[in-house]
Design brief:
Elements: H1 8-39, H2 42-69, H3 72-96, H4 101-130, H5 135-163, H6 167-186, H7 202-215, H8 217-232, H9 236-247, H10 251-275, H11 283-302, H12 306-334, H13 340-353, H14 355-369, H15 371-392, H16 394-398
Helix pairs in contact: 1-2, 1-4, 1-5, 1-6, 2-4, 2-7, 2-13, 3-4, 3-6, 4-13, 5-10, 5-12, 7-8, 7-13, 8-12, 8-13, 8-15, 9-10, 9-14, 9-15, 10-12, 11-12, 11-15, 12-13, 14-15
Length: 420
């Protein structure tokens, strides 16, 4: 229980992340709001969000190569420092009244570009701080911080925007990264980086992560499952406003409660995994979480009672974080050290990078057939894919991690075996 907190380096890391993640969520409210003030266009606001997440989809494998090539703490020191620049620029521009829409898009693109290096390094850095034994606990605690910050950060940002104005949100986010940088600088006794062969061509190194995922069935199928759920079942910011307005007739206050209910469920799911880390290594429980998640989304799609909708979203949030965190844990546990950065880059692409595509398809379906049909169709597709994976590759959701025996393809070196 909370075994990851036994490690000094992880305690420092978590403290820094608590502060910087609240700042990140504050900017997640302030940036689209600034774009809306400048353009009064929902489409242009959506393009800002797309600019922020597209680099992760397109270039995360480069970030994975960097994470595997250099010491991860050094990579994170660079990325956490770089995050300050676009945030501070938006503070200066918005405070001086010189902000223009293209500047917001450029800042979003810069943030996304830093993210493509930050996410693989940050995800694969956890195991270096806590080891595989406490990895699930560390992932769960990180998820708890993320979801708690998702509740606190936007609320604080809303108050600041009303009381003192929008620019302070950008300044707060920029300053918050100092906590993460200081935490990284205070770490000590980290493991040495696995030696990489300098003469391996860049394209070959890029291909190694994908080749490993293709030959390791559990890792590959979990990545596919995460990508499918991200595409079809995790579009709450696209569909929930439509449900609140057109289906449940609950208005903006109802929309806030719907998002909050799902966030509280996700926080409860993350805390459950923090208290009982073995749940995150149980493939059968992960299958049940996927099934209940699909069922909750289907129930939400047909509900016309606000209280029932709140309960089903709480359940969906709980199952969502349980499924995603378990996938993260199992993928990192199986993947060999010398490939972990590149494989976690694939994970970032599956979970985050496909977000703009998922939001687009959900919005299109909602426009054509209505939000309930968009939610139901997405849930059914995700459920069908998980069922197909269970039938075609039983080890993914029906057997222990050790049941996988595939190894990484040879790359002509003496790197550690990828056999699990």
């Amino acid at each position: 229980m909370f075994g990851a907190l036994r490690h000094r380096n992880y305690r420092l890391f978590l403290a820094g992340q608590i502060i910087s993640t609240v700042g990140t969520w504050m900017q997640s409210v302030a940036m689209p709001w600034l774009a809306l003030e400048l353009t009064h266009s929902g489409l242009l606001v959506g393009l800002v969000l797309a600019a922020q997440f597209t680099p992760v989809l397109v270039g995360s494998q480069f970030g994975g190569v960097v994470a595997d090539r250099f010491r991860k703490r050094n990579v994170l020191l660079a990325t956490q420092s770089a995050f300050m620049v676009p945030s501070f620029a938006l503070f200066v521009l918005s405070a001086s009244g010189h902000a223009q829409y293209w500047m917001v898009v450029l800042a979003a693109l810069a943030t996304g570009t830093v993210n493509l290096f930050d996410v693989p390094a940050r995800q694969s850095f956890l195991v270096e701080m806590v080891g595989k034994r406490d990895l699930m606990n560390a992932i769960a605690l990180n998820s708890s911080v993320f979801n708690a910050a998702a509740i606190v950060g936007p609320s604080v940002a809303g108050v600041l925007i009303v009381l003192v104005g929008l620019p302070l949100c950008f300044l707060a986010n920029s300053v918050s990264y100092l906590a993460a940088v200081v935490a990284l600088l205070l770490m000590r006794d980290l493991p040495e980086r696995v030696t990489q062969h300098e003469h391996t061509p860049m394209l070959a190194r890029l291909a190694q992560g994908a080749s490993y995922a293709r030959h390791e069935p559990v890792v590959g199928m979990l990545l596919i499952a995460v990508a499918v759920f991200s595409l079809f079942a995790m579009n709450r910011l696209t569909l929930l406003p439509l449900f609140a307005d057109q289906v449940l007739h609950a208005g903006p206050e109802g929309f806030g409660f719907l998002v909050g209910s799902m966030g509280m469920g996700a926080l409860a799911g993350a805390l459950t995994l923090a208290f009982v880390p073995r749940f995150g290594a149980d493939p059968r429980r992960q299958l049940w979480m996927a099934a209940i998640w699909v069922g909750a989304l289907l129930e939400f799609s047909i509900s016309r009672v606000f209280a029932i909708s709140l309960v089903t979203l709480f359940v969906a949030g709980y199952c969502q974080i349980s499924f995603v965190a378990a996938s993260n844990n199992r993928i990192q546990t199986i993947t060999p050290d010398h490939l972990r950065g590149r494989v976690m880059a694939l994970y970032a692409q599956a979970l985050i990078g496909v977000g703009p595509i998922g939001a687009t398809q959900a919005g299109l379906l909602a426009t054509l057939f209505g939000a309930p049909w968009a939610m139901a169709v997405g849930a059914l597709i995700a459920g069908a894919v998980v069922l197909a994976i269970r039938l075609l590759t039983p080890a993914v959701f029906g057997g222990p991690i050790a049941s996988s025996t595939a190894s990484a393809p040879s790359v002509g070196s003496s790197q550690p075996s990828a056999r699990t």
